[in-house]
Structure formats: structure tokens, C-alpha cells
Amino acid sequence: MISGRCAACKNQRRKCPSDCIFSPYFPANDPQKFACVHKIYGGSNVGRMLQGVPTYLREQAANALYLEAKWRIDDPVYGCVSIISSFYEQIQNAEIELAKIQTQVAFYKLQIQHVEAEPNLEVLQSQSINMEQFESDNPTITSWFN
Amino acid sequence: MGSGNSPCASCKLLRRRCAKDCIFAPYFPSDDPQKFAIVHKVFGASNVSKMLQELPIHQRADAVSSLVYEANARVRDPVYGCVGAISYLQNQVSELQMQLAVAQAEILCIQMQHEPSVAAAIPNPQQIMEFQEQNNNNNELTHHHHHHHQYLNFAASSSNVIHDSLSRETLFGHDMVS
To answer: Do B176 and A83 touch (CB under 8 A)?
Structure first.
């Protein structure tokens, strides 16, 4: 059945056997998919890698290989690694921001505790946080608010 | 580096003569046979050679580093390779952004409940808006790659499988492409 060839066998100009390892994942109507993985990994390599994976996971593996091949074609120097890099950077930045905000929250809560603990104004004044003292003791935290 | 006498790791593995202008030699020294072995296993020597040839020389070292990284990821996770790591990191980013939103809401809550007593310490609205803008700029990084996100839908729909295969994984730390 020449017309029933999968994209891989069409690309390689050979017969597509009934147990072709590529055909479930590289249908004839999507020649791009096999062309990409063929360019980066080589056809026989893809077949070997699919064989090394249990059948129920082969579709996921074929799709992952396609994604990575596509990213590598788009960026021949870094491939998908530039995406990973940028995610690491985002995570780092977000963690720093989170630490800042959580410190702010703790700071506010501390202020509130001091305000609510002593209704007596004189005691309150003597016990309230001295902002000037706090600022000179904690220049880094203070800089976040300025 | 391939000297006149000793073949580079690639030519050793491929059992061929290491020429003076061997394309692999600068990046696959003979003292690290694993490096080429793993790249050869995933991509194949002729594909690596082809990829390097298509790049200007000053970019080849970075290309080799990223290929080694990808090959290692693929060997550790033969199903998802790097895509698994990307999916995991994307989830981490989402979670962190959610935690950020919660913390921001907490501050607003505190401010609204205790305004008179903590009025002195509240950052003015300008500061809050600048902070939120910074946050949005962080999100732009994802937009630069947004055309990749459409491909990640398949990963989201099978997140259980990804999660299971990742539960054994450790991330590769920050040993990134130099």
C-alpha cells in the first residue's frame, strides 16, 4: 500500500511495513514532524530511541524529540537550553521578590503587634519601634521601602 | 585539544585519524571520552559535525555545551529529555508567581485593616505600582518564548506522566551553558 506510507518511510523512500515503528507517531499528513527529527537526530537514531522506550510512552517520546528538534532548528547554538536558562532566571528573580515581600509582611506584622499590645499611650510611646534606630540598624531592609 | 599525536575523543571513538583541522578536536578533548560518547549516542557524530559546520567558529563551543546538556537530559529521561525539565521549571515559575500574588494580597490586607497605625511604614501607591510593573516585566520573559508555549500543551495534558518520571529527577542545578 504505497499510499499508506507514514511520513518517515516516505522521507526515506522505502516501503512502510505494517509494524513500522514510526508510523503511529509520524503520520503522512505531517511531513514537517519527521523532517525536523531527521535533521537533528537522524532517522535511524530516532527509531532506535523509540525502541528504547516502552510502547505506551513512545508517542510522548516522539513529541518531545520533535519539540527539541524544532527548538534546535530555531536556535542552532543553544536549542532548548536558552528556554531553560530563561526559566532559571525568572525563578531566581521571583524568589528574590518573594523574599522581599515576605519580609515586608513580617515587618508590618511586627509593627501591628507593637501598636496593639499597649493601649496606654505613654507605654506605647516608650515601647514603639524607633524608626530612626531601626533604619540605621537595618539599612538593606530600609532601602526596599525607599 | 587534538595535538599532532593524540587523537581527540571523537576520533578515538570513531576509530579514525584525527586530522589537524578535525572539527571535533577543539571541543572533545581526549581526556573526556564520555562527553563525545553521549552526544554521539543521542545525535550521531555526522549530525554533530554537520551542525558545527553550519555555525561560525566562535559559536561552536556554546553549541557543543548545549548539545551535551541536551544529550545528558535525554539519557537521564529517555522519554521527555529536556522537555521534562522545561515543563517542571514552567510549573515552578507559575507556583512562585502565585505565591507572589498571595503575599502581595496579604500586604494589601494588612494595610486596609490597620492603616492608621502602620501608615508611616506603608509604601506609597507609586511604589506599589512600580513593584507590580517589575513583576509584569518578569512575565515578559515568558512572552519572548510564547511561540514555544503552544507546543507545551501536550505536556500539560499528561502532567501525571511527566510528574512521575520527574519525581526521581534532580534538576541539573545551575551548571548551565557557559
So the answer is: no
